[in-house]
Every structure is written in C-alpha cells, then in structure tokens.
Amino acid sequence: MNKNISGFLATVLVLQWLFGCTPDDESYRDNRIMELSRVDSVALVANHVMVLADGHAQLELYPRLFVHEGDQIPDERVNREWLDYVSESGQALSRYFSTTDAALIGQTITARLKIKGTGLESNPVTFCIAAPLEKEYTSEIKIPVIFHIVQTVEDVESFGGTYRREQIEALLKKLNRMFDGSTTNNPVGVNTHIRLEPALYDLYGKKLLEPGINRLTVKEIDVENKYEDFLNQQHLIWPVEHYMNIWLISDRIGVVDDFGNDVSEWCRPYYVVPGATDRPEGIDWTEYAGEPLKAREAGVIYKLQELDNIDRDFASSNGLFANNELGYYIGRYLGLLPTCYIAGVETGGDFCEDTHDYCQDENAVGKNRTWYKEANGCYFRAENIMDDPRGGHCSVSREQCIRMRWVLNHCPGREAWKSDFAFTGK
Hints:
The protein is an alpha/beta fold. The chain has 2 domains: 38-130, Sandwich (Immunoglobulin-like), CATH 2.60.40; 138-424, Collagenase (Catalytic Domain) (3-Layer(aba) Sandwich). Helices cover 18% and strands 22% of the residues. It is built from 9 helices and 19 strands. The protein has helices at 3-19, 153-158, 165-180, 228-233, 259-262, 295-298, 326-333, 398-410, 421-424, and strands at residues 39-46, 50-52, 59-67, 83-87, 92-93, 96-97, 108-115, 125-130, 141-152, 194-198, 213-218, 244-249, 271-272, 286-287, 299-303, 340-341, 358-359, 372-375, 378-381. The longest helix is centred in the N-terminal third of the chain and has 17 residues, at 3-19. The radius of gyration is 27 Å and the shape is globular.
C-alpha cells in the first residue's frame, strides 16, 4: 500500500476514535461556583488550638460547606465572598489569624463561620493566645557540623562520582530554614536561633578543603554493630566537644533493610550531666560518668541515598515508619520525640503540649497517611520537624525549641557549640 494512503487512513482512524466518544464516555471535574441555594450546612475547623502572639505565627480556619445530599463542596467551588468569620463577641475575623497584642496572651478566642444572606452558622472553634518564645531562648547557638561522606569505590565509579559539595550546601540551607521557621507560618512555630555551620578545620587543626565535609572512599563498608566498629576503625568519630558529627553512609543495595529505624533512630541523647534538674520527659536519662561515647551517642548516622529521596511513603515494608528526612533525626539527636505514633502502641506523646500527637486513623481524611492530618479536633498540614515521613519538616514549636536548648546545655556530646575550634583550628 502507498505510504501516503496508509498514513491518511491511520489519521482518519485516530480522528474517528477521538471524536466518536459520546459525552457519557468522558469524565470531568465541575469547578464552577456552587449555587448558594444548594448549601445546606456549614462547619469550621482550625489547624491548631493555640497561636503565638509574635506576629509571625498564623492560625488558619478551614471552612467546610455541605450540600443537601451531605457531600462536602470542594474548596474551588466555594465563593469566598459568602464567608464571614466572627468571634463570639461579634468581632470580624479573617480566615488567617495572627497577632502581636500582648494583652491577648492567655485569653481564649471563639470563632464561628456564617454564610452571608442565610441563617447558616458553623460550630464554634476555640483557640488560645500563647506567649512567644522568651528572650532567654533567642541567643544564637552556632553548631559546627562535619558531614562524613562515606562511599564505596563502586558507588563512586558506577553511580555518578562523589556526592557533590553543592548538594551538601543545599542540605545545610534547608536544615537551617527548618530551624529558623522562615518557610512556614505554623501557629506555634518559632525561630530557634539554632544554626548549623560547616566546620572549617579538621580535628588536627588543618583547614578543610571543603567546608563541613570529610570524605572517605573504601572498598567495603562494615555494617556490624550499627556501623560502630567501622566508624571507630576509620577514626571518623571526631571530638564531640568540637564537632557535631553527621555520617552520610552509602547503602545503595540496601544491606540494612530499615536504615531509619535500625540505625538513625538510635542517634539520640542518653546521658545527662550529674545533678541536672528539670530533665525533659520521655527519655530514660543516665547520669554521665565519663565513659567514651558510642557513635550513636556522638552524632547522627544517615543513609546517603535517602538525601535525594523525595517520594517518602508513610510506612516501611515491616509496618514501622519509613526512613524520615535528616532533619527528623537531628531532632532526635537534640532530644525531640516523634509526634506520630503507631496506633495501638502505648505512648506518652512527645511531651510538648503545643504539637499535634496523632496516629494512623481509618476515619481521618487520608487516614492520616498524607501531608494533611486530623487530630484533637484540628485539621492541619504536617510540617513539624518530628512529623512522619509524609510531612514538610519545616517547623519547630516553642516547647520543642526549649527542650532542644535544655539538651544542648545538659547532655554530653552536645557541647560543640560552646567551642570555636572547628572555625579557627585552635
């Protein structure tokens, strides 16, 4: 058959297939504004039960409108001009509430949603105004950090070379934004004034070729004893009084089945200086007697390949939480506890009253396995540093900040910020 004729017939068949479909064969989403007369009921929910009076923290009120059939009207089909947010006293509010009024601290505000031109009114939503972070917690803490990048020869030769310095710089920037809260308006989020700064000198006082980076390439990486033996043999545990150690270890083939829970999760404080008072709850503290710190007590061990994993599932294959972001484990290293727990497992929560404790919930939106969660009567975007893997990890609460600063002052292995050796070499 002539090629031109063959091509013409193929085109005709495609067009017949495209235009031969009836409207019933196609599905589409109706994004037109809903008629006001179809709105049958209205509800209101907030993303928190408190908001800091610092002018930056911001509480959000979520409107929920329903039709006669009981289905919720999609947000894009709601005319915002219908909505009036009012306080119990009749004061006009907006969907986003923020304040710097110190006179409101300790007070409670009750909000309702009303639909203009109707008698429809929502349930009441109550939230309190909390004090901002005290000045004693706003002095800058600069932690010198050294990233020990451990790769195999095969990893370097077959998978794109050594992990680039630019990627570490981007990682540091992300971590510091997490600590300063600049990328969120969380109702209880604060600027911790804790910064991670790349070390400039090695443990011998010699200037590093790459700030904050110590590289090691080996034929094999020994995983025994949660990498403890390997890190000691390779002299990779730098003095904790001068450096915060972060070991980025390659495990491309998955020798460790569940790196986050089997290795990284154990990098947390265990010891406290004798006589320290007001010890944070939830940790089985042991008074320090001068014994050498193990790797898991002296830094954070993290899987190198996880740094570039942007598709984080909620749970791992064994039912535990999947590997989280590095910032989560740094939070653990500084004494924070998870905000999310496995349903049915006894837990005291994270002992911070200004965070959401939540678990998987079959009745919640997305079963609490997506970025948005439901807990304590609130509907919120998971963005706390200690939220599950499906979270933004860009916020630290006021009480979490206070807890971390206590650990930095009272826990052996967390005192590097008190020294400038890593920045001066002497």
